[in-house]
Write a structure and sequence with these properties.
- The chain has 164 residues and is mainly α.
- The protein has one domain.
- It is 68% helix and 0% strand.
- It is built from 4 helices and no strands.
- It has helices spanning 2-51, 77-92, 94-113, 119-143.
- Residues 28-137 form the Phosphatidic acid phosphatase type 2/haloperoxidase domain.
Length: 164
């Protein structure tokens, strides 16, 4: 079971490698997408201060070491980072996005399996991270100059005459 505790943090490294690879092609967009992950994390920290839910490892034994008291359970920060990273990577590269999505779900599930989060903690974390990251991606698409945007393939426009 040690691989589960190590794997939880290793997945975050996978996201870092993907962002580094995407940096080579998308420079500014990759940087801003990564900044979106930081924003999602900051929001999750504020939510934790408001909700203040104890972790399951305080009431039952867990595989992983239980974080110190005051490190609240809801939402899971690992899941927020995973969800935000997966959505940001998806916005930049669909193939990497599929890999990132699988990694995000695996990272979230591992937090429950090792006993440091409840299922609703990780589900909320994935959703929060993905929504924040998606919102930032939408804003970037509208705010960046056309040359910085993703190449768009336009379908040919067909104009039909109105029948009378």
């Amino acid at each position: 079971m040690t691989w589960l505790t190590v794997g939880t943090d290793a997945v975050l490294g996978v996201f870092a490698v993907m962002f580094a690879l995407l940096w080579l092609r998308h420079r500014l967009r990759a940087f801003l997408a990564g900044a979106g992950v930081v924003v999602a994390y900051a929001i999750s920290e504020v939510v934790k201060l408001v909700v203040r839910e104890e972790r399951p490892c305080r009431a039952a034994p867990s595989i992983a070491e239980c974080p110190a008291p005051g490190d609240w359970s809801f939402p899971s920060n690992h899941s927020v980072i995973a969800g935000a990273s997966a959505m940001a990577i998806w916005a930049l590269h669909r193939t990497y996005g599929w890999i990132a999505a699988v990694c995000a779900v695996a990272a979230a599930a591992s937090r429950v399996v090792v006993g440091v989060h409840y299922v609703h903690d990780v589900m909320a974390g994935l959703a929060l991270g993905a929504l924040v990251s998606w919102g930032i991606a939408v804003l970037l698409e509208k705010r960046l100059p056309v040359r910085q945007r993703r190449e768009e393939v336009e379908a040919p426009t067909v104009v039909l005459q109105r029948l009378r």
